[in-house]
Structure formats: C-alpha cells, structure tokens
Design brief:
Layout lengths: L2 H32 L14 H32 L4 H10 L5 H34 L7 H30 L6 H28 L2 E3 L3 H14 L6 E4 L10 E4 L6 E5 H6 L2 H16 L2 H23 L3 H6 L7 H16 L3 H22 L2 H14 L8 H7 L5 H13 L1
Parallel strand pairs: 2-4
Antiparallel strand pairs: 1-2, 3-4
Length: 417
C-alpha cells in the first residue's frame, strides 16, 4: 500500500461518512415534518398538539444546525490532515527545539485550543439562539465562558500530566509500550470515575443532599429492596444552566452517588421519581456499567495494538498530510481519523445501549411501578421536547434510548402482564 492509496481511502471514507450523516439527518427532518400535524395515538391523551409540535420544531432546528456543524468539522478535518494543517503546526512547534515529549504535548494542546476556539461560535449559537428560542437556556454569557475556563483548567491540571505519561511511554521504544499505555489509561479512567463525584463535578455545579423526608424515605426503601448502597442522594442545580431534567448515577465502588437535577424534582411526583431511580438502579443491577467498562477497555486495547503497528508505517503519515513522522503525530492522526471509521459502527453501539435501556425498564417495572415510570417518561418527553416521531433508521443509528412509542409500549406490557 502506498501513501496515495491511504489518501484516496481517507478521502473516500470522509466523503462517505459525511454523505451518510447528511442523508440520515434529512431523513429525520422529513419524517418529523410528515408527522408534525398529529400527536401519535399512544400519546394523544397525554401530550398536547402544541407540545408535540414544539418538540418537532426543536428537533428539526437542532438537526439543521447540526448539518452546518458537520460540514464545518468535516472541512476542518480535511484541512488538518490532507490539507497539511497538522504538519504546519508541528513545524511551528519544532522551532522551539523542545524535547520530543514536550513537543508532542505542545502540538496536541495547540490542536485542542485552536479547535476549541473554532467551536465557540457554534456553542454560542446552540445555547443562546436555539436553546433560548425554545425556552431551555438559563445560562448567562458569564457562566458560559466561566465554564469554558474551568474546563480548560481542569484539562490542563489533570490531562497534561497524563498526556506526558502516555507520550513518554510511546517514546520509550519498548515494543510493549501500547500495553503500558493501555494499563495507564485504564487505571486513569477508573481513578477519574471515582474522583468525579466529589472532586470534579462540584467545580461546575452545586450538589445538595436530598432533604425531603417523604421522598428520602421512599428512596431508602427502594435502595434497600434492591441491595444498593451509595454515598447519598444529591440534588444538582441543573436549573442554573438549563430547564432540561435528568437523573444519573456517578462514581463507582464505595464512592457511588445518586444525582437528581433540581428541574426533575420540580416536575415529577415522588412515585414517579422512585420509578425513574429504579430504572437507573436497573443499569447497576444488570451490570451495564461493568459491561460498558469492559467493552471500552477491549476496544481501547485493540485500538492501541493497531496504533502500535501503524506508528512505524511511514506511508500512513504521508497519506494523511504529515511529512515528518513522529510518535505523537501517530497518536493525533489516530484520534482524528478513528471517528470517521467508527461512525459506521454506530448502529451496533446504539443497539447494545437500547437493549440495556429495555433491561433497566424491566427492572424498574419489577421493583417499582411501571405505570409511574410511563407517566414520568411522558412528562420528561414533553418538558425536554423529545420528538415522539423519530425516523426509524436515524433512531437506530444514533439513539441510545428506544424511541418513545416503542419504549412506552414495552413498559405498558409490564403493567398488564
């Protein structure tokens, strides 16, 4: 294989990926428009036509703007790679005559900073135009940029030392460097999962222990029935940034926490909150978290093994616009090109995720009230403006959760079974 073969293959995959995503987005918009005039029968007595049409308009607007983002990011990737942008950045950093590892860190940080700055207009538009238009945004410009600064500082404080370790291991010239990197990455990921609830998350949001006695008692009984222990149940000030509601588990081992957005508590009754929590517990009790960690670990191991082979293939660099091979440039190219290929695996990952959602719903139906979970989901669909009529193919490709009608029908069987 030659550098020209790699270049042609990359161009083909880049165009194929772009065309596929545009086609799916257009299908989604067209399907929603065709069903905008009428609420699906299963929701006719639960959701108003006005709310249904708001969800349709919100989803369509997000998809149309997403196409602009996609076009820009695809063009930018082409410029960074076959357009010679990475090589230009590398040449500039090399003029400072730093060590190979420090040079690699500087190039990666430069790439990240430039990309981050170019993303700002898109994020501003999504937040202060689209989210604002549909009544979801509660961010101020000050908080927007403060969050960005905090994220940058966290990345520098935590990410740079780890990046130094990875590049140092890659530069070590050991034939097994990829195994050492994988072990370091896996350990780092587990540490971050453990630290996130108590150290990182509070940098961005305020977490207050749940203090409603009736709800707290109901949750305690549910946790006891399910054999689940945690560091506590916390309310997050999600309303500080958005009116969207959510609930999630965070951490692992002895550092697990249950987190409810304050917006969720405002909209759901106690029995509905219990049902939502039972669903989240289902993910834990059905070992979904462990399965996802194992899947992530195996895929990263396979990816690093592939990178270990690619790192010595000079034609790979040349085909992707890099004339001066280096271990850090191999890592950058791998991170940039992998998403172009992995997009075609989306249906497989989405299928696995939706299977887990069904299993968590089944667990919730057995350990709480399936009817209350249905009413809670319907409220969340309405309040978050989740479309009730996604295109089936688009949904199969992207959605981690089953489409609303399918999920509600599945739960309805549990209420009558």
């Amino acid at each position: 294989m030659t550098a020209l073969d790699i270049q042609y293959s990359f161009i083909f995959l880049l165009i194929a990926s772009y065309v596929l995503q545009v086609w799916l987005a257009r299908r989604q918009v067209g399907h929603i428009l065709r069903h905008r005039a009428e609420v699906p029968q299963a929701f006719a007595d639960k959701i108003s036509l006005e709310a249904h049409q708001k969800a349709a308009d919100y989803t369509i607007e997000r998809n149309k703007f997403g196409l602009i983002e996609l076009s820009f990011s695809t063009l930018l990737l082409a410029i960074w790679t076959i357009g010679g942008g990475l090589q230009y950045l590398d040449d500039f950093v090399r003029t400072f005559n730093l060590s190979p590892v420090i040079t690699g860190i500087a190039v990666i940080l430069g790439l990240g900073i430039i990309s981050g700055i170019l993303d700002i207009p898109f994020n501003l538009y999504k937040t202060f135009v689209i989210e604002e238009k549909f009544g979801f945004n509660r961010l101020t410009v000050k908080i927007f940029f403060t969050d960005m600064l905090k994220q940058t500082l966290v990345m520098l404080i935590i990410g740079v030392p780890f990046l130094y370790l990875v590049l140092w291991l890659m530069d070590d010239a050991s034939p097994y460097w990829w195994l050492y990197v994988w072990g370091s990455w896996f350990g780092f990921s587990m540490l971050m999962m453990w630290l996130y609830p108590a150290v990182i998350a509070p940098i961005f949001n305020k977490f207050t222990p749940l203090d409603e006695p009736d709800l707290k008692n109901k949750i305690s009984q549910l946790l006891e029935r399910c054999g689940f222990t945690s560091k506590g149940v916390f309310i997050m000030d999600g309303s500080k940034r958005s009116s969207h509601g959510n609930a999630y588990f965070t951490g692992f081992g002895s550092n697990k926490r249950i987190v409810f957005f304050d917006t969720l508590l405002e909209s759901l009754q106690h029995d509905e909150i219990e049902a939502v929590l039972a669903h989240e517990l289902g993910h834990f009790k059905r070992n979904h978290i462990k399965k996802r960690i194992a899947t992530m670990a195996l895929m990263s191991l396979a990816g690093l093994a592939l990178l270990a082979w690619l790192i010595d293939q000079s034609f790979i660099y040349e085909g992707l616009g890099v004339s001066q091979p280096s271990f850090y440039m191999a890592l950058i190219l791998f991170m940039l090109v992998t998403p172009v290929i992995s997009i075609f695996l989306n249906p497989l990952f989405s299928l696995m995720s939706r299977k887990h959602e069904f299993e968590a719903d089944d667990f919730a139906a057995k350990n709480s009230n399936a009817g209350k979970l249905i009413t809670a989901l319907v409220k969340l669909y309405e309040e978050n403006s989740n479309t009730l009529t996604p295109d089936p193919l688009y949904s199969a490709f992207y959605d981690s959760h089953p489409p609303a009608p399918v999920r509600i029908a599945h739960l309805a069987k549990a209420t009558t079974g």
